[in-house]
Amino acid sequence: MYDQIQNPGPPLPPAPGHGQRRRRFVLLAGALTALAVFTGAAVYGVHWWTHRDERQVSSAVTEFAHAVDREDSATALGLMCAEEKQSAVESGASTTDHGLASRYERPVKTSDIKISGDLARARLTRPSQQPATLYLRKEGGTWKLCDPERQSPPQ
């Protein structure tokens, strides 16, 4: 009897279905994780794509305001639509003057960006200055400041 207690024989096989259940669980967990990662990436991509023009409009407005601060007419002209640029050059604006250093730039905040096709409107706010509404037109894939668009602003 002592021999039987010490050496009980070969180990018992695992319960039927235990390995299959574990494998299914691991596959299901992996599939759910992959789905969550894919969904997160898709949501991020859609958000990035739909707000891309808004970021470009905001950037153009900020860059233009800083060019005006620096009295950098060459950069400011480069940020204007063709007809606005032509009018400014005819009025005597320099196409080569790059103005002052960046330390002359003041803080800029853009908000209330509305885009309709190739037209946009943005609100520019600065400390101790009245807010201004700027109008833009997309020319050659780039947003340009374009005051004539004031006549047909985006809704």
What does this entry look like structurally?
By secondary structure, the protein is an alpha+beta fold. It contains 5 helices and 4 strands. The N and C termini lie far apart (95 Å).
Give me the secondary-structure category. alpha+beta
Task: Please state the oligomeric state of the protein chains shown.
Answer: single chain
| Helix percentage range | 40-55%
Largest sheet: 4 strands, antiparallel
Give Rg in angstroms: 32 Å
Total DSSP helices: 5
Q: What percentage of amino acids are in beta strands?
A: 15-25%
The largest beta-sheet arranges its strands as: 1-2-3-4
Q: What's the N-to-C terminus distance?
A: 95 Å
Number of DSSP strand runs: 4
Q: What's the rounded overall pLDDT mean? A: 82
Shape: elongated
Helix/strand order, N-terminal first: HHHHHEEEE
Low-confidence runs (pLDDT<50, min 5 residues)?
A: none
Per-chain topology:
Elements: H1 2-6, H2 18-50, H3 52-69, H4 73-78, H5 82-90, E1 109-116, E2 119-126, E3 129-139, E4 142-145
Antiparallel strand pairs: 1-2, 2-3, 3-4
